[in-house]
Amino acid sequence: MKKLDLLTLGDELLLGLRPNAHLDYLGGEFARHGLPLRRNIVVGDAPADIEAAFRDAWQSADVIVTTGGLGPTSDDNTREAIAQVLGLPLEFDPAVEAAIVERFARSGRRINDLDRKQCYRPRGAQPLRNRAGTAPGIYLEKDGKILVMLPGPANELWPMFESEVLPRLQTAGVLSSGEAYLQLRTAGVPELHVEQRIRPIVDKYPGLGLAFCAHQGVVDVRIAPAARDFGPTQLQAIGDEMSAALGEDFVCFGHATLAQVVLDELRARAATLAVAESCTGGLLASALTDIPGASKIFLGGVVSYTDDAKLQMLDVPESLLDQHGPVSAETAVAMVTGAAERFGADYALSVTGLAGPEGGTKELPVGTVFLGYSSPVGAWSRKMFFSGDRLTVKARTVNAALDWMRRKLLKYKVAELHATGVGREAKP
Predict the structure, then answer these.
(1) What global pTM score does this model have?
(2) Which of 1.10.10.10, 3.30.710.10, 1.10.1530.10, 3.40.980.10 is the CATH number of 4-171?
(3) Burial class (CB within 10 angstroms; exposed 0-12, middle 13-18, buried 19+) of 169
(4) What average pLDDT does this structure show over 395-416?
């Protein structure tokens, strides 16, 4: 296996002003195609630091990917520093200049000398088309090694990687054309419990690689050839065994989010959804609207953060709030019923809870959450508790709500298969 190094460049990364999202994205993409990262090196904008980091990577790695530092400003030094290490002159590319001129003309701008800095690339390198910005990427094969230089903005880098870089690396035989592993996504159960359920299956297949990744109530299981070869058909057969063993804790094969799975199930029923949120502050609606085509199913949501908002926007009875409090099973049911009625939705979800760090009591400690679920045949509530900081509680709550709905819909599907009449819903 070839050695792959990622150099993410920029002072803002070292100062903590921006998260290293490129590591998450590129690390996942390379692993998915059979070449996991050997290491990620974060480097500032100083040319000497870039030269030192790149020189080390070029000496020991087979594939080197850099992100950032290709723009027109004075702190964009990647192109020049790497050309210096490689001993290659920078050559002007008139085609890149023409593309920038054309792009600027559409917005009434004119190119200047600083913009032309982006038109240079090391001798022998190929430009990578940038459909969302002005700085092209750079691709170079030299001395049996591959160098890929990508721009910093994610909206430029990610499409460039998919359309320009991935096909080149696949043609070069560095990356596989399909996924190098099979992923099973589970939800609502700890990582250890997932392993205990599938371990007997794994033990039947010596040489099968197994990896876990847990994140906010979701556990991904990746199976791949390790000490022997397993073809795609055999991997899928093993995955099918695992999904059967996991039962309703199994969400899907691949990378679909819980929101995607829920929306797909509702789309199959030609059903609609609304939400009412308190402690999650709109994150549940955001997760749903992240999915393309959500508008065909998701009708809308209410962020009823205060008692007055619950009264005015969801018609939660004041007497109910006085008697049971805003964080209660009764309020969760009233919220979800109000959301379904206000939007005219077939299904609805609600969340209310204590995300912290203050506001908890002995009876309702911080991390206590109540979920509400409404379907055409009734409404239910569920009490849950999540440990962690405020953002963790909010993220876990969103996933728990979506997973609960997924399970309800799954039980409905199973019950429907055994029902005598089409369209009858069995109460989960």
Answers:
(1) 0.86
(2) 3.40.980.10
(3) buried
(4) 91
